[in-house]
UniProtKB/TrEMBL annotation:
Keyword set, alphabetical order: Signal
Organism listed in the record: Brevundimonas denitrificans
Protein name: Entericidin EcnAB
Signal peptide span: 1-18
Length: 45
């Protein structure tokens, strides 16, 4: 029973870490998109 609990806790930790990683990638992509948009606006003016 203890092994099952340890495996469940490890799986939960890995799942949480993966969600944080995906969230971070999304924020980075959004920031890059905003930078490109800003550069395009500057070039247009």
């Amino acid at each position: 029973m203890r092994k099952i609990f340890v495996l469940f806790a490890a799986a939960a930790a890995l799942t949480t870490a993966a969600c944080n990683t995906v969230s971070g990638v999304g924020r980075d992509a959004s920031a890059a998109g905003q930078a490109v948009t800003g550069a395009a606006e500057d070039a247009k003016n």
